[in-house]
Design brief:
Length: 146
């Protein structure tokens, strides 16, 4: 199978995968908003989020990237060690849901003071939401958070 064939196959299902990822992200955000350990959520699908109106006017969905703050570094550690369906890995946009810890992964080379000024604190986690069952993902996060 050549590269062109592989690309065409992927493109044929791209819209369905993206729709599912966006739907899952909205459901996960709704669940995170109810969790007392979650102290803030950065997601363009929230009306209180900067950029909401622009995203709403320019796109059919709000994407599948969610950043959220938890109550402590200990909660971060517990979540990263406890998730079962969600994978702790550094990547974006695949069909599997991944969780990253920017302070030690994507932004590890940025000085801590600068990271904190940019909101990349030691209590920030980031999800790249995949196409799995949203209820399973929510259950996985809830169990890991609590």
């Amino acid at each position: 199978m050549n590269f062109e064939t592989i690309c065409v196959r992927g493109i044929k299902t791209l819209s369905v995968r993206l729709e599912r990822q966006c739907e899952n992200a909205l459901k996960i955000v709704a669940a995170l908003k109810k969790n007392p350990r979650v102290k803030g959520i950065l997601f363009p699908g929230l009306p209180e989020c900067r950029g909401y109106e622009i995203a709403k006017s320019q796109a059919r969905g709000f994407g599948s990237m969610i950043s959220f703050y938890v109550d402590s570094p200990e909660t971060v550690e517990r979540v990263l060690k406890s998730v079962k369906i969600i994978h702790f890995a550094e990547s974006l946009g695949g069909i599997d849901t991944l969780i990253t810890y920017p302070a030690t992964q994507t932004h590890v080379d940025v000085p801590e003071k600068e990271r904190n000024e940019r909101g990349i604190t030691n209590t920030l986690l980031r999800l790249s939401v995949g196409i799995e069952n949203a209820d399973d993902l929510i259950d996985d996060l809830e169990r890991a958070l609590n």
